[in-house]
């Protein structure tokens, strides 16, 4: 007898008998062995700074978000977390801090990737960790843009990151990459392997080359011996025949990057199956894990989920979370795919199926996707045309699975008709398997999981607080951060900013740390040497910004600036327009420009009394087309600026790389009267961190 579920109501399953003639048939059988080992589904934090705002969320919502990403049998239940090894340079949405800004120091407390890796491990001790650099601090290249100029030095720098993870955070780094989407130096690859072995990190596997299936990497046996995984980016579910024969694990080590609506979900569901079915890739990793960067920066919502409002606590669990769950909740790293034709293949009417089994062959998971062409393109590469149609299929279980009597069914239905709403990862109960046979209806734009694993859960928390605009006034004195922290609410676009303690009345301040141009990932960042750290909303109009600033006495920048109505970040930071108020304290000079490079000067002057070489208090106010600037409460300019941007971010930075300190950073709404009274404060408590005050309003 053959049976088919018909979904009459959302949760009601009815089984009807069907004539077998209209059925396609698929055999699931392990008696002729298995296919490749499954290495897990992952998310990529960084590349860059895509998780930036997450750490600043209120603890309750932050824990919920982390559960949706990492908690087993709950949400995406990710099996790999890939992170950026910060290189002090812009890589798409912000810079991430290096563990060695300069060769004479090392620090493993910067940024948020350490924190994120620990939160992931806390939820899933089995999760694998993978580090990859996008950029490097300038000293690695001895002033050039070539990180391989001294390969031993680079290998040592990467080893230190792996060792810092272990020693400071008890994190084992399972995989390490070479240089994201850039030249892979095979001599360096071999030296990195030797260095890690010499230091006892045999267990850390090398992924090459995080770009494409590079013949230079795959064609030389001494190179092939040095790495464990061949990782390609955006392979479009295809890998060349020659690399399939290489005897190495093949991964799609960066993929997805697609807007996270249901088409993004369709993309993700399709490639999770087809990267193996077609390309024999045993892991797929999404860039990016979570959209936790300011709206208005590039690559809006190309993320598994969205959480970019730490001030309100609002977040949104998007469809790719549930597409991940279809595989991750019913498999583990170390399971095996079944052979092609015996559990893996294309569906007769379009779409694909993959089957995986546990090492003891007791458990079986079958994931079926039938994504239509127009509802599942990823951002790249172009998706060749194909057609899909509904089909009823009989699945025949043989080998170790012949005795299975029931399978749990989980279903997602993506609906694109206006007014129809999609359903994600619904628990459809279990279906009987009779004489090894089960029949299922596979609809277009659906994902089905059939599994012996009973622990699937559509994890749910109460709705988060509603979205809200970034609140003003904003005030930050950096006192509550641990040393070396990167302040939660500021998003560095160029340069890197750490909390340091200068003592005295200023106490903890935020210091720009980069002293020379980094080895870039975005080539555009080489067009200028300013640093920039953004805050707030991409469409703030009338604001007043105040900050205390001091350039470093040794290795200092020349000037510092505050800016309003800044319209660009990411790799395009160099063309940012807005209103930028610079001072050059050692020369007592000020300057107002409409571009970050200070080329289009609106006014400038020299004020020996107003501008001092020690701390200066800057105020920049914009209201409509009127801009006013003062230093130490002495007005330097007040003028009309007819062609300025109508709105944008607030920011601060330095004119060139070099140390500069910032404190008591305050943003008010310049069109309303100032708020007075007690600060309205949100506290985020960390077990292993002192109390951190992230978003608060001033006295
Ligand atoms: C770095 O470059 C300078 C010249 O710019 C050279 O004198 C020096 O030897 C180089 N250092 C290393 C370690 O390569
Ligand atoms: C699948 O079976 C159902 C129930 O008999 C039937 O209504 C439907 O038309 C079938 N679909 C296809 C594509 O054959
Ligand atoms: C940036 O600084 C480097 C080294 O200090 C210098 O070689 C380069 O010309 C500078 N770039 C620009 C655009 O000024
Ligand atoms: C600013 O952007 C937010 C978020 O998109 C939007 O809700 C708000 O209306 C915008 N405000 C202005 C003044 O454009
Ligand atoms: C300032 O306040 C006014 C009046 O409440 C409001 O319309 C405007 O959006 C606010 N501007 C900012 C930048 O918050
Ligand atoms: C300034 O930079 C030089 C190298 O250019 C370094 O030797 C020195 O230690 C630095 N001083 C400080 C205070 O960072």
TrEMBL record:
Residues 38-329 form the Glycosyl hydrolase family 59 catalytic domain. Gene3D superfamilies: Aldolase class I, Exo-inulinase, domain 1, Glycosidases. Its EC number is 3.2.1.46. Residues 493-669 form the Glycosyl hydrolase family 59 C-terminal lectin domain. Keywords: Disulfide bond, Glycoprotein, Glycosidase, Hydrolase, Lipid degradation, Lipid metabolism, Signal, Sphingolipid metabolism. Residues 1-24 form the signal peptide. It is an enzyme of class 3 (hydrolase). Residues 343-456 form the Glycosyl hydrolase family 59 central domain. InterPro entries: Aldolase_TIM, GH, GH59_C, GH59_cat, Glyco_hydro_59, Glyco_hydro_59_dom. Belongs to the glycosyl hydrolase 59 family. This is galactosylceramidase. It comes from Aplysia californica (California sea hare).
